[in-house]
């Protein structure tokens, strides 16, 4: 709590920002008076999966431009113990692909919500679709040899 308001924290990579990212942030906004959104740094993301396509500076700028967050900060660690203490976080929201990972925050008095991934857009699916479409385009290229150049 801060100034009598519930402090909510949500975070993510937010690579290739899409509607399900927006839905989670909007959901988090509805859970309290102050919304802090953490954007994972490139270094943090690369420590547990492929690095983001969109650089950190662009991803954080996109999140700052949204109407829902009150504060947007870099997220440099997956351990949120110190962050919870420093920012007086009451509620923690994260995608349900992390179910169970942040249950330890409950011992600090934080309510943890695992937001359902939802249908449709996901960064993984978008990347997969781009690769598939690129491969289809490559396969359609006319593979005829170049004509001999007259010397």
Keywords, please?
Rossmann fold; single chain; 33% helix; 151 residues; five-stranded parallel beta sheet; alpha/beta; 5 helices
Care to describe what's here?
The chain has 151 residues and is an alpha/beta fold. It has one domain: Rossmann fold. It contains 5 helices and 5 strands; from the N terminus they run E-H-E-H-H-E-H-E-E-H. The chain has helices spanning 19-29, 42-46, 56-64, 81-87, 123-140, and strands at 7-12, 34-40, 71-75, 91-95, 111-115. It has a 5-stranded parallel β-sheet with strand order 3-2-1-4-5. Strand 1 (7-12), helix 1 (19-29) and strand 2 form a beta-alpha-beta unit. The chain is elongated and about 80 Å long. The relative contact order is 0.18. The mean pLDDT is 89.
Briefly say what this structure is.
By secondary structure, the chain is α/β, with parallel strands linked by helices. It has helices at 19-29, 42-46, 56-64, 81-87, 123-140, and strands at residues 7-12, 34-40, 71-75, 91-95, 111-115. The chain has one domain (7-140): HUPs (Rossmann fold, 3-Layer(aba) Sandwich), CATH 3.40.50.620.
- Global structural class: alpha/beta
Second-tier CATH architecture: 3-Layer(aba) Sandwich
Distance between the termini: 80 Å
Uncertain stretches of 5 or more adjacent residues? none
Portion of residues in helices? 25-40%
Strand order of the largest sheet: 3-2-1-4-5
Mean residue pLDDT: 89
Q: Tell me, what's the shape? A: elongated
According to CATH, the fold-level topology is Rossmann fold
| Count of individual beta strands | 5
Which CATH first-tier class would you pick?
Alpha Beta
């Amino acid at each position: 709590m801060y100034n009598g308001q519930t402090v909510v924290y949500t975070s993510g990579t937010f690579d290739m920002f899409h509607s399900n990212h927006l839905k989670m942030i909007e959901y988090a906004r509805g859970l309290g008076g102050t919304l802090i959104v953490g954007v994972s740094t490139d270094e943090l993301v690369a420590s547990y999966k492929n690095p983001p396509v969109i650089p950190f500076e662009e991803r954080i700028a996109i999140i700052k431009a949204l109407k829902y967050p009150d504060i947007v900060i870099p997220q440099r660690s997956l351990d949120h113990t110190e962050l919870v203490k420093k920012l007086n976080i009451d509620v923690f929201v994260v995608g349900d692909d992390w179910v169970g990972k942040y249950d330890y925050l409950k011992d600090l008095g934080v309510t943890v919500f695992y937001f359902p991934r939802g249908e449709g857009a996901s960064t993984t699916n978008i990347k997969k679709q781009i690769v598939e479409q690129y491969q289809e385009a490559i396969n359609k290229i006319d593979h005829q040899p170049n004509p001999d150049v007259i010397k």
